[in-house]
Specification:
10-stranded mixed beta sheet, 15 strands, alpha/beta, 13 helices
Length: about 375
């Protein structure tokens, strides 16, 4: 039997030949780029790439076929990236062309003031988020999340601010369902510290409370506190600020709301218990959406909605692409697609500047990996 050192020398020699061939392949790819430029051809050729991947599987033993396919995809990824770099022209891809146009046409500074739509009423956490994103927002309120999307789509508001996820209770599932129905782009995001308080009308006592109102997420975030109130009925309403407003309007002393501290002074309520959330490190992440694509300087995040083919390895191949390009995945969420049996939409948040060549390479290859996809924008998060 050969010594380990001898076997390693053989592997090193094989690796050296592989990298020599890789360099040679890249040079040929540069000639391909020149040919495509001269003949008005697109960089991406999905049918050829599918054929090459299928061919790779048949060139190795069956137990290595998957690895061979991944290797071939990585080789084509590198080739495609090099061709894009040499051509320096994203116009052959409509999404890339739109991204490039947005980067050129978006002002350098984010607007300090704008007409912004939020869900709920005065005092809502969405209002707090809007005031973090904009210095002087003109805020109008919609009773529903769907109404915020529609306000932006119809041009009734320049921007909309909507909750995406909470560090304790997780994603706002309704939001991801609505995102599949509406056309929009994310231009900013921010996180708001959530501090829930039990608010009631003057003269109320904790022992006398029989009904508590709040948003479903707030109720989930305060489950431990609520479990200590065995005789209390919990009711879900549209918004934590709406809950405070309803309690104030009722005039009753046996009802309370889980809401923010500003809502106490806003609606003339008293704090029966403060900071009743299960965890003090409790944040909700909000997205600022617009009708048109705007990519401001410093945009280092991007969001995608992707539907993959219902075949083995589809998600793996996509995740391998992120890995190959060294793109950090910040969030992966799956939601069932309405009226489609056992089909899912995947929502991705990635960490990658819009100007980075890795981002260009990713966007140029999504079409070959996905059944359908939507680019939701590149943006920065305001802390």
């Amino acid at each position: 039997m050969a010594e380990l050192s001898d076997l390693r020398q053989q592997i090193d020699a094989i690796d050296a030949r592989i990298f020599e061939l890789f360099s040679e392949r890249t040079k040929v790819a540069e000639e391909v780029a020149s040919y495509k430029r001269d003949n008005g051809m697109r960089v991406l050729d999905p049918s050829r790439e599918r054929a090459k991947v299928a061919d790779a599987a048949g060139r190795v033993p069956e137990d290595l076929s998957t690895y061979a396919q991944v290797l071939m995809e990585l080789l084509m990824e590198a080739s495609r990236a090099r061709q894009h770099e040499l051509l320096d022209d994203p116009s052959d891809d409509p999404v890339l062309a739109k991204i490039e146009a947005a980067r050129k046409n978006t002002p350098e500074l984010f607007p300090p003031s704008a007409h912004v739509s939020c869900q709920g009423v005065e005092g809502a956490y969405s209002q707090i988020a809007a005031e973090k994103i904009f210095k002087r927002p003109l805020i109008s309120y919609s009773p529903t999340f769907d109404g915020v999307f529609r306000s932006v789509e119809q041009g009734l508001a320049q921007y909309g601010v909507l909750p995406l996820e909470n560090s304790t209770a997780g994603s706002v599932n309704q939001m991801f369902d609505l995102m599949m129905e509406h056309s929009f782009y994310i231009v900013r995001s921010t996180r708001v510290k959530v501090d829930h308080n039990l608010l009631a009308n003057p003269g109320s006592t904790l022992e006398g409370i029989r009904d508590v109102y709040s948003h479903e997420q707030a109720i989930n975030q305060c489950s431990e506190f609520l479990s200590g109130l065995p005789d209390v009925r919990v009711h879900v309403c549209e918004n934590t600020a709406v809950a405070a407003e309803r309690v104030a309007e009722s005039g009753r002393t046996d009802v309370a709301a889980l809401s923010s501290l500003p809502c106490a002074s806003l609606y003339g309520l008293e704090v029966l218990s403060s900071s009743v959330q299960d965890r003090d490190n409790n944040y909700t992440r909000f997205a600022c959406i617009s009708k048109k694509l705007e990519i401001y300087p410093g945009a280092n995040r991007a969001s995608l909605m992707i539907v993959l083919p219902h075949v083995p390895g589809a998600l793996y191949k996509l995740l391998a692409k992120f890995y190959a390009l060294d793109i950090n995945l910040l969030k992966l969420e799956s939601r069932p697609i309405p009226e489609r049996d056992f089909e899912f939409m995947f929502y991705f948040d990635i960490e990658c500047p819009a100007a980075a060549p890795e981002f260009l390479s990713l966007m140029s290859t999504l079409e070959s990996l996905c059944q359908e996809y939507r680019y939701l924008g590149s943006y920065a998060e305001v802390l």
